[in-house]
Amino acid sequence: MELPNLDYIKEISGGNEDFEKKFLSIIQNEFPKEKNEYLENLEREDLEESAKIVHKIKHKLGILGLQQGYRLAIKYEEDLKYGNTNLKSDFHEVLHTVEEFILKIA
Amino acid sequence: MRSIIVDDEASARAIVKELCKKIPGMEVRAEFPNALEAMKFLKDNQVDLIFLDIHMPKLTGFDLIETVQNPPKIVLTTSDKNFAIEAYEYPFIVDYLVKPITTERFEKCMRRLENAFGQDGLGSKSNKSVQDEDEDLYINIDRRLIKLKFNDILLIEAKGDYIEIQTLGKRYRVHSTLKKIKEKLPDSSFFQIHRSFIINFTQIVDIQDNSVLIERNVIPISRSNRPELMQRLNLL
């Protein structure tokens, strides 16, 4: 299974460790909020709003080097707009992977 | 260059800000999590560039674009490639960056900005458009972006809410205006010859009375535009 990495963040930072720390703390703060917002919308069956949050999460998957997860999120976001939740469990697996990674680097 | 960043994601703002730090002459004056706050700032402050996200709650990046008077140059930042078509409808949009933005792509964007702001680099500004430096134009036909080389365009005719672009052997009908496309075309070879026509004057076959012949098209010259056209031609 694909695992998150910090390659992109290191590329952007160019070795600036202060930025890396600050940026990771932003992700640690932003990701759980977005995940909860997504789950709440999903529970309310507001799939249009869910798609909007998946759109934001998609960016974070790219940042964390999850190429397959990123592609999955693109498809899932589009599917949600048409009321299709078939990719839900696959996407939730990716969310779980990111959550574990974020806890590990905390 | 004075810039602002507008994006509802703090992580996205942080990345753009960090990338900007590496660019000499680039100053990030402020960052905003929504379009409304940016609009308020822009009422009292002038900037040269906006890094603008499209997908934001309540007001989108396009809403901001439509609201700001005399918009500065804009670089769109988005996770959605589908808006590229719409983006190029606006002459002041210099580039379109898909997130996550790589250093290499950002540097390419800065080179485009340098061209847009003149040869003195990002520390100076001019109204020169980046399109003056390009050799081609993308048009939106049935949700496809089709590349047209400036040299291949013969003429453009206004037809109601549409324009018709004629190249050698092809015609393209695009939902746009002559005014918009004029801003995209280089002055060095294009000229509005009539209220309804822009021509590539390097493609003129001959001029007779008040009309020009371009390939097999006879295009009227309006009386007021004729003197400027004659000035631009290399007359013996």
* End-to-end Cα distance of chain A: 22 Å
Main sheet of chain A?
none
The SS-based structural class of chain B is alpha/beta
Largest interface: A-B, 21 and 18 residues
Residue share in helices of chain B? 25-40%
The figure for the number of domains of chain A is 1
Give the helix level of chain A as a range of percent: over 70%
> Overall pLDDT of chain A, averaged?
94
Tell me which CATH architecture of chain A applies here: Up-down Bundle
Counting helices, strands and paired strands, the structural category of chain A is: mainly alpha
What would CATH call the class of the largest domain in chain B? Alpha Beta
CATH superfamily of the largest domain in chain B: Response regulator
Poorly predicted runs of chain A? none
What summary fits the major beta sheet of chain B?
Answer: 5 strands, parallel
The number of helical segments of chain A is 5
Could you say how many structural domains of chain B there are in total?
2
Outline type of chain B: elongated
Written as H for each helix and E for each strand, in order along the chain, the element string of chain A is HHHHH
Domain HTH LytTR-type (chain B): 137-235
Modified residues (4-aspartylphosphate) (chain B): 53
GO molecular function, one term (chain B): phosphorelay response regulator activity
InterPro entries (chain B): CheY-like_superfamily, LytR-like, LytTR_DNA-bd_dom, Sig_transdc_resp-reg_receiver
Topology:
The complex is a heterodimer of chains A (106) and B (236).
Chain A: H1 7-13, H2 17-43, H3 47-63, H4 67-81, H5 88-105
Helix pairs in contact in A: 2-3, 2-5, 3-4, 4-5
Chain B: E1 2-6, H1 10-21, E2 27-32, H2 35-44, E3 49-53, H3 61-67, E4 73-78, H4 84-87, E5 93-98, H5 103-117, E6 136-141, E7 144-149, E8 153-159, E9 162-167, E10 170-174, H6 178-184, E11 190-194, E12 197-200, E13 204-208, E14 211-214, E15 217-220, H7 226-232
Parallel strand pairs in B: 1-2, 1-3, 3-4, 4-5
Antiparallel strand pairs in B: 6-7, 8-9, 8-12, 9-10, 11-12, 13-14, 14-15
Domain Response regulatory (chain B): 2-114
GO molecular function (chain B): DNA binding; phosphorelay response regulator activity
Keywords (chain B): Phosphoprotein
